[in-house]
Amino acid sequence: MKYGIAIFPGKELQDLANSYRKRYDPKYALIPPHITLVGEFNADNDEIKAISDKLQKVASHYHSIAIKVLKISTFQPVNNVIYLKIEQNSNLEDLHTEIINTIGVTHEHPFIPHVTLGQQLSNDEHLDLYSSLRMRTFSHEETADRFHLLYELENGSWTVFETFRLGKDE
Amino acid sequence: MKYGIAIFPGKELQDLANSYRKRYDPKYALIPPHITLVGEFNADNDEIKAISDKLQKVASHYHSIAIKVLKISTFQPVNNVIYLKIEQNSNLEDLHTEIINTIGVTHEHPFIPHVTLGQQLSNDEHLDLYSSLRMRTFSHEETADRFHLLYELENGSWTVFETFRLGKDE
């Protein structure tokens, strides 16, 4: 089964992201707005139990993660994705690295924490959206105290399998 | 904020439900297939923390819940909802009652555990779907070991706030 790991920001930031995603993100209906910690990885039922236990241990090493949005950005020219950039911080970076090492997946890209607003945009759409959004001020701060392990259904949507609360060790 | 409590059945049952929901359930994109334990209830940030702690206690009283599907059914004439009927069992009933009492919401309806396949159907659609599905055999058994607390976004979609694993007490 295909799994992924993500942080869901608070309702306010999710509602903001969805106001753009509705029009600009073909994956709008498949998953709520999120910060990806690990993209897709495969695991069978036994493996995921072991991974799940290890993730709970990882979660216990952190108390909270600052989520700070200052601006929008784009992955162009790599791809036409426009996103809210989450300010990198050592906690978030360490959490990501520890999770990656725990699962044993390899970094394909550098970790750029973000909440997608639009993707699979044509060049014209990308230009329009980016031009209008870069003039706007985005300023938002919150604290995450949990992350989630999700799995993918056949229709491409994601269901939460487990929540890991930071600072808890069962 | 609006919260709800649900069990997500395994991927196989979710995929089956989605194959009908895609066409017959206008809420298809808003939440994965689920068994509702508590419909919408309101709570503020402080309240939900207390509720969350209490739900973890409730979860610790159970080890697993049998999820057994034998047939489809309908809520007609109350409303045109067609669903996979989950066989009632004392664990599931007790879990539901304990959660309801913990949160302090009142029963509006008797608890009929189910996974919705179609809703808001016209009478014709309802008749068509029900006639074709009642001829099919549905037979599925699995064991749930967790339930989820979710909150609603402005667009009507639901995000998981927390997972409660049965048999665990933190």
Describe the structure.
The structure is a homodimer of 170-residue chains. Chain A is an alpha+beta fold. Chain A has one domain (2-165): Cyclic phosphodiesterase (Cyclic Phosphodiesterase, Chain: A, Alpha-Beta Complex), CATH 3.90.1140. Helices cover 32% and strands 32% of the residues of chain A. Chain A contains four helices and eight strands. The first copy, chain A, has helices spanning 11-24, 45-60, 90-103, 123-133, and strands at residues 2-7, 35-42, 65-74, 82-86, 114-118, 140-144, 146-152, 158-165. In chain A, the strands form two sheets. The first copy, chain A, has a four-stranded antiparallel beta sheet with strand order 2-1-7-8. In chain A, strands 5-4-3-6 form a four-stranded antiparallel beta sheet. In chain A, a hairpin with a 7-residue loop joins β3 and β4. The radius of gyration of chain A is 16 Å and the shape is globular. The two termini of chain A are 25 Å apart. The A-B interface holds A 1, 8, 11, 14-15, 18, 22, 28-30, 32, 146, 148, 151, 153-155, 157-163, 165, 168, 170 and B 1, 8, 11, 14-15, 18, 22, 28-30, 32, 146, 148, 151, 153-155, 157-163, 165, 168, 170.
